[in-house]
Amino acid sequence: MEFLNPEQVLNQLELSESMLAADFGCGAGGWAIPLAKKLRTGKVYAIDIQEEALSALRTKIDTARLNNLKLIRADLEQGVGSSIQANLLDLVLETNLLFQANDKKKVVEEAKRVLKQGGELLVVDWKPQAKMGPEGGRISPSEVEELAKSLGFVLDREIEAGSHHYGLLFKKPR
Q1: What pTM does this model have?
Q2: pLDDT by position in tens, the chain (length 174)
Q3: Is 8 exposed, middle or buried (CB count within 10 Å of its CB: 0-12, 13-18, 19+)?
C-alpha cells in the first residue's frame, strides 16, 4: 500500500455490520462512505466544521444511495463538540485530523466521551518525516500515543496506513 487507502485501512479493523461509528473531520467523505458501506445495518456520524465539505458529502451520499450516514456540522475542539450521546459508539475515526487541530486533546477527549467501554479510536495521520503533505501541525505517533494514554486509552496495535501515514488503534478500557 503506497498511498493512504481508506478501504485497505478499514479492512484491518474488526468491523461488524451493525456498529455505530463516527468519522471526526469527515471532509467530503473519503472515509465516511467506505465505512458506511461496511456498516450496512449500523450508522456512521460524519462530522466536520466546514459546510462545504458536508455539502459535497451530501451529494456523494445521494449518488451512493447510502441511508446510514448522519451529517453533523460541529467544531470538535469545543466541549461536547459532536453533539453525539456519550458512551454510544463502537468506533471513532480521526484520519488526517489531528495535524489540523489547534486543541488536539479536546478532539481526542470528544472521541473518548462518545465511545462506549471497549470502543475503538483509530488515528491515522501524516508521518512527521513524510516528504509530502502539510507543512505544519504534524503530530508524531509517540505524541498521539502519549495523548491518548493520558486520557485513559490503551494502544491496541499499529495499523498499516501507507508510506506517508501511520495508523494507531486505541481501545477505551472497559
Answers
A1: 0.96
A2: 567 899 999 999 999 999 999 999 999 999 999 999 999 999 999 999 999 999 999 999 999 999 999 999 999 998 777 889 999 999 999 999 999 999 999 999 999 999 999 999 999 999 999 989 998 889 999 999 999 999 999 999 999 999 999 999 999 988
A3: middle
